[in-house]
Structures are given as structure tokens and as C-alpha cells.
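Field log, afternoon session.

UNIT: design team B
ACTIVITY: writing a sequence onto a fixed backbone
BACKBONE:
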């Protein structure tokens, strides 16, 4: 979809309402003060915020944080985010907390400053896309910029509703980058195109698999979802996590795939879900009383060869229980292989909370073409769905 971008807007002297994704983890320090423990999402929004400031605009930022269920809750206040943002941005950040006179607070922001509104989910109308709430937010500004890809699949008042009450609405740099990368792999991928899907449930990724089958050259499966596929083909999976109500779907997908779906040929298995449990490598079938907790070395080598031969790669979902060091080899090896593939000229995209966490823990994040900031939004995009947060923006 050809949508307006930040570069299409004249923001000089204008107030710019910016939907960001500051849904970041918080922790308490020794003094009991809540602080930001991972500012990846905050830093991802800085290019858009800085550009608006540099071009003479006045950013008014809005975001959700956690799930406060439509009522003010100090545990989910964006106050700690405002303090952290001021530090990393280097500009004054004024925070409009719960109960604040927001229009008056907006008038008090310094010329080179930023206003951050309180958690959008403190308002029950946010998730309902309440029109009156959306109009109230839109009235604060002259134009709207959406830079929250992680919320683009939600038709909320702060993502869709505000666009009904403001003259121009455009993509920020983060949202534009996400849209460009994901559109590229769906519409014109350089081949071979390989997707890697892992995680716990086949049910979470049925739509993605169905949409990718006609586009990819290979679809590599890992994680607990592989056990549902294997069981659907008659293999024993012991006590591994299994979706028995998805066996028919898994079998149907395998039949329609024409050999594109590739399953693990060996597994690291143990008797209990415990990092210290004695483990060993087993072939395709997993013995009774044991569970698969990672892909095996033969599978890793097969997947590695296919990935290093690829020119376009998408990865969503871990290969095993990577939170446990003894069952993290598969996931971290995939991360290393993607970094090598990127160095070799492949386009690599990683998305989903666990996959992104694994890439960051592995230290290879700088060697990936694009790391998506939206797990659910990325999956819906890859399913071929139109994301309401993008569709609502102004057309070029």
C-alpha cells in the first residue's frame, strides 16, 4: 500500500501526534523506583522523534504499556519511560500523567521538547476504538505519525481512530522500514527463499504457513510445533508438547506442501522439563517417557546448508527451549547461521519475541538485515492480512 511517510509531511511549526511502541519491560531499583530494563523499543523510535524535532515539529507521543485493563494503574504508568526517554533523546520530555490537563500540559512543553501522554490503555475506549476518545487525542495535534509496528495489527483509538479526525496521517521511519522489508519478502524475494518457523504451537502459525507455502522454496520447522507435524505423520513423540486437535491440519499442510516443509530428523530429548535433566540425541521418533527439547545436530547441519544457500530468510520462533542453556544450541546455532548468511549477502529478517531475544542474547543482532519489533503484527503481515494501523493512514 502506498501510504504517506514522515518525509511527505511538512511538520515545521506543527504539533505531531506520534503513536510509538514504548511497551517496554520495567523493573524496580534498590530505592523502589521503577526503571526501564530494556530500551530497545524506545531507541527504535528515536530517528522519527529526532527528525520531527530537527524539522521544527513538536512531537506528542502516545503508547500503551502492559495490560492495565482500562483503568489507571501505577504499575503500568509511562512515567519511568518519560525519564528514560529524556536521557537517551537529549531533549526535555514533559509527562502528562493520569488526571493531567493534557491541552494545558502541551502548552507548557519547551520549544525543543517532547510531550509523552499517559498509557493509552488506561482508557477503556482505547481497545474499543472509541471515536470520542480518538477525537480528543487527535485534537491535540495537526498531523499524525504512526511508528508503532507492534500495534499495527490492532484497530484501537490510538492507531486507527485518530486518523478519522486529523488531516494527514503517515508512517514513521520504524513502521516504514517494517512495511518495506516485509513487503519485499512477500512480493519479490530473491531466491532461494527460506522461512524458519518454530515455537510452541502449530495453531499460532497456520495462517503464516498457508500464505508462505506458495512463496518459499523451503520451510524449516523447529520447536515444539514440530512434534505435532511429526505425530501427524505417524512418528512417536513421547511426552513432548503436542496439539492433538491440530494433527489433521498438520497432516493436510504436509500433503499440500509438496516437499517444501522440512521437519527435524533428530532431537535432543530428556525425561523431564529441566535444564539439568540427563539428555541424549534421538532420531526422528522420541521414546516413550521422554520429551524433545531441542533439534539435534543432524537437523542443524541440514538446516545450515539450506540457509547458507538462501538469498532471503525469515525466522520466527525458537528451535527449542533456549531459555535453558543445555537446550539452547539449536536456537543459537540458527542465529549464528543467519549472521553468516547476512554476511554473504542474504536478506535476513527475524521477528517474534523469543527469536528476537535469542538474537540479542547471541550477540548477532548487528549482523541481521532487519529485526522486527512486532511479533503478532509480523505474523499477521506474513499471513497476508491487511494491518488496520497501516491501512488507516493517508494514501499517497
Amino acid at each position: 500500500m502506498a501510504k504517506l511517510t514522515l518525509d511527505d509531511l511538512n511538520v515545521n511549526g506543527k504539533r505531531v501526534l506520534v503513536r510509538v511502541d514504548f511497551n517496554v519491560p520495567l523493573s524496580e531499583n534498590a530505592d523502589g523506583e521503577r526503571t526501564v530494563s530494556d530500551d530497545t523499543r524506545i531507541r527504535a523510535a528515536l530517528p522519527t522523534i529526532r527528525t520531527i524535532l530537527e524539522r521544527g515539529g513538536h512531537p506528542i507521543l502516545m503508547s500503551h504499556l502492559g495490560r492495565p485493563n482500562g483503568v489507571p494503574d501505577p504499575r503500568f504508568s509511562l512515567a519511568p519511560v518519560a525519564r528514560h526517554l529524556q536521557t537517551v533523546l537529549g531533549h526535555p520530555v514533559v509527562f502528562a500523567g493520569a488526571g493531567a490537563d493534557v491541552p494545558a500540559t502541551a502548552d507548557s512543553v519547551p520549544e525543543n521538547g517532547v510531550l509523552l501522554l499517559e498509557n493509552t490503555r488506561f482508557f477503556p475506549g482505547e481497545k474499543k476504538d472509541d471515536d470520542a476518545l480518538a477525537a480528543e487525542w487527535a485534537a491535540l495535534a495537526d498531523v499524525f505519525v504512526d511508528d508503532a509496528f507492534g500495534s499495527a495489527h490492532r484497530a484501537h483509538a490510538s492507531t486507527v481512530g485518530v486518523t478519522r479526525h486529523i488531516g494527514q496521517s503517515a508512517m514513521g521511519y520504524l513502521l516504514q522500514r517494517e512495511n518495506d522489508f516485509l513487503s519485499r519478502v512477500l512480493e519479490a524475494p530473491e531466491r532461494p527463499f527460506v522461512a524458519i518457523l518454530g515455537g510452541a504451537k502449530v495453531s499460532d502459525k497456520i495462517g503464516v504457513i498457508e500464505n508462505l507455502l506458495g512463496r518459499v522454496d523451503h520451510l524449516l520447522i523447529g520447536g515444539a510445533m514440530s512434534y505435532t507435524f511429526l505425530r501427524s505423520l505417524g512418528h512417536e513423540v513421547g511426552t513432548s508438547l503436542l496439539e492433538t486437535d491440530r494433527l489433521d491440519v498438520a497432516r493436510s499442510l504436509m500433503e499440500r506442501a509438496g516437499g517444501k516443509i522440512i521437519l527435524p530428523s533428530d532431537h535432543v530429548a530428556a525425561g523431564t522439563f529441566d535444564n539439568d535433566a540427563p539428555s541424549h540425541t534421538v532420531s526422528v521418533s522420541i521414546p516413550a517417557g521422554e520429551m524433545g527439547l531441542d533439534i539435534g545436530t543432524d537437523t542443524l547441519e541440514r538446516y545450515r546448508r539450506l540457509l547458507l544457500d538462501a538469498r532471503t530468510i525469515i525466522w520466527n520462533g525458537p528451535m527449542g527451549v533456549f531459555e535453558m542453556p543445555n537446550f539452547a544450541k539449536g536456537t543459537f546455532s540458527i542465529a549464528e547461521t543467519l549472521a553468516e548468511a547476512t554476511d554473504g549477502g542474504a536478506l535476513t529478517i527475524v521477528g517474534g519475541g523469543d527469536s528476537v531475544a535469542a538474537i540479542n542474547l547471541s550477540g548477532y543482532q548487528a549482523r541481521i538485515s532487519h529485526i522486527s519489533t512486532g511479533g503478532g503484527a509480523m505474523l499477521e503481515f506474513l499471513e497476508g492480512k491487511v494491518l488496520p494501523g497501516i491501512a488507516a493512514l493517508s494514501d499517497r
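LOG NOTE: The chain has 13 helices and 17 strands.
NEXT ACTIVITY: expression trials, pending approval
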